[in-house]
């Protein structure tokens, strides 16, 4: 089969063997797969992969690693010990985890043993696979994983505060930041501020429900937050003066070095900071975080309820993913698209579709 492989620190289209499903696994044919920034992190930070003690991702430079964990596919064959409740030809998707008997689970696309949707065929765990109807476009299904991340963080952020009038601040309006905005809006957040350098991404955030959008080159997002939440952009360092004022909730969705540092330095005392982006190489002063009494959540989602719950909303028409899909391509265009997706000027999601080949 053909696939975009990552081997010897190089990305290219290559012929590779067809994967063979093990016990409880499905062989599926890729219908659509989206390019995710997590794949850029996998390529750029092999030290992080090698340090993953869970075994869910591995650094295997001498092997063909086929990334791609945001997908829609159809069942082609079953491995041993499958229940076969879904017939061959069924269109499916799944939270991207490949279970292996007596072996560590793998994240789909982050090890040679768990090839992903950047190839023509890959493997899924049968009991995690969810049937999806033929009436929903495959590219809409493929971006569910990104939307589910935002659905998780919006839930976590809303659960942190009970005050009426809390203003939520989203830093970075790529696919994850945009999905956080969409999630907050669907959950009934009173006011959402979204900040990004890209005018196009700010416009998408506005369309998804942001009440205020900010270009950080023109105004500090934190000053904008204080104006909207507290009625004045003035900095307040005295925690006693903050008594009775709304708590700040900040979603870091940029994944760029320095953003978390900036948030810690400029956020309000007692803020809840949810790091969804994560640059892998940022620094936060523990003194600043301690003096401000910051609560920081590092990653953590999506949970199963968020992933499949978000999928249900797409299937039921309650969540429209169309704004997330900026471009569809064929497999041969994938290496170029993978590099272009690094840019802040790229669409929120570029999706390769089998019928584009």
A few lines on this structure:
This protein is of the alpha/beta class. It has helices at residues 37-44, 46-50, 138-142, 144-160, 175-186, 199-208, 221-230, 259-266, 286-292, 304-315, 334-340, and strands spanning 2-7, 10-15, 25-34, 71-78, 91-93, 97-100, 103-107, 121-125, 130-131, 167-171, 191-195, 212-214, 249-252, 272-275, 295-298, 325-329, 349-353.
Walk me through what this model shows.
This protein is of the alpha/beta class. The chain has 2 domains: 2-143 and 321-356, Medium-chain alcohol dehydrogenases, catalytic domain (Quinone Oxidoreductase, Chain A, domain 1); 147-298, NAD(P)-binding Rossmann-like Domain (Rossmann fold), CATH 3.40.50.720. Helices cover 28% and strands 24% of the residues. The protein is built from 11 helices and 17 strands. Strands 3, 4, 5, 8, 9, 16 and 17 form a 7-stranded mixed sheet that branches. The chain has a 6-stranded parallel sheet with strand order 12-11-10-13-14-15, with helices on both faces. Strands 1-2 form a two-stranded antiparallel sheet. Strand 14, helix 9 and strand 15 form a beta-alpha-beta unit. Helix 4 crosses helix 10 (304-315). It is elongated, with a radius of gyration of 21 Å. It starts with a strand and ends with a strand. The model has no long low-confidence stretch (mean pLDDT 93).
């Amino acid at each position: 089969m053909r696939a975009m492989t990552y081997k010897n620190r190089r990305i290219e289209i290559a012929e590779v063997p067809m994967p063979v499903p093990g016990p409880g696994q499905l062989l599926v044919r890729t219908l659509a797969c989206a390019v995710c920034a997590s794949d850029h992190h996998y390529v750029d930070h092999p030290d992080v992969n090698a340090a993953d003690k869970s075994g869910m991702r591995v650094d295997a430079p001498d092997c063909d690693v086929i990334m791609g964990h945001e997908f829609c596919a159809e069942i082609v064959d079953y491995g041993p010990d499958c229940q076969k409740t879904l017939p061959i030809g069924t269109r499916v998707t799944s939270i991207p985890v490949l279970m292996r008997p007596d072996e560590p689970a793998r994240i789909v696309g982050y090890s040679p043993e768990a090839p992903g949707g950047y190839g023509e065929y890959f493997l899924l765990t049968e009991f995690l696979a969810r049937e999806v109807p033929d009436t929903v476009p495959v590219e809409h299904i493929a971006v569910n994983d990104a939307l589910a991340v935002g659905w998780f963080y919006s839930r976590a952020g809303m659960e942190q505060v009970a005050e009426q009038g809390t203003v939520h601040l989203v830093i970075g309006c790529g696919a994850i930041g945009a999905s956080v905005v969409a999630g907050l809006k669907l959950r009934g957040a009173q006011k959402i501020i979204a900040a990004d350098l890209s005018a196009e991404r700010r416009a998408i955030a506005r369309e998804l429900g942001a009440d205020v959008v900010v270009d950080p080159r023109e105004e500090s997002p934190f000053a904008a937050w204080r104006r909207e939440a507290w009625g004045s952009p003035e900095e307040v360092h005295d925690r006693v003066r903050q008594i009775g004022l709304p708590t700040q909730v900040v979603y870091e969705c940029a994944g760029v070095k320095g953003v978390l540092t900036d948030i810690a330095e400029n956020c309000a005392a007692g803020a809840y900071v949810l790091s969804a982006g994560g640059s892998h190489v940022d620094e936060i002063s523990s003194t600043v975080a301690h003096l401000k009494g910051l609560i920081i959540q590092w990653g953590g989602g999506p949970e199963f309820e968020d992933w499949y719950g978000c999928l249900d909303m797409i299937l039921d028409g309650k969540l429209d993913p169309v704004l997330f899909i900026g471009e569809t391509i064929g497999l041969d265009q994938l290496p170029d698209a993978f590099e272009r997706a690094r840019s802040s000027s790229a669409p929120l999601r570029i999706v390769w579709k089998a019928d584009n080949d």
